[in-house]
Specification:
Blueprint lengths: L1 E7 L3 E8 L6 H11 L5 E4 L13 E4 L9 H7 L1
Parallel strand pairs: 3-4
Antiparallel strand pairs: 1-2
């Protein structure tokens, strides 16, 4: 399962998208990007290396997870 959280400056979480994955390969991860993420979006991910090929097409920065502390919006939805 992969989750994308869309946020805005005023109210925080705006939309959430879920996609079932066969595995965590770049090919599988790309599915949620193609369906739901604009190429002009600013994207924050963890350091999974399978995101690297997407950096060529998307504004993607990778941040160490720090046990979930770096993805507050995501963990707000899960918990």
């Amino acid at each position: 399962m992969i989750i994308a959280v869309e946020t805005n400056d005023t109210s925080g979480i705006k939309r959430v998208y879920f996609e079932q994955l066969e595995d965590y390969s770049g090919k599988e991860i790309r599915k949620i990007f193609d369906k739901h993420i604009s190429k002009s979006a600013s994207i924050k991910t963890d350091k999974l290396t399978d995101y690297n090929p997407l950096k060529k097409e998307f504004d993607l920065i990778q941040i160490k997870s720090d046990k979930g502390k770096s993805s507050k919006e995501l963990h707000t939805i899960i918990h």
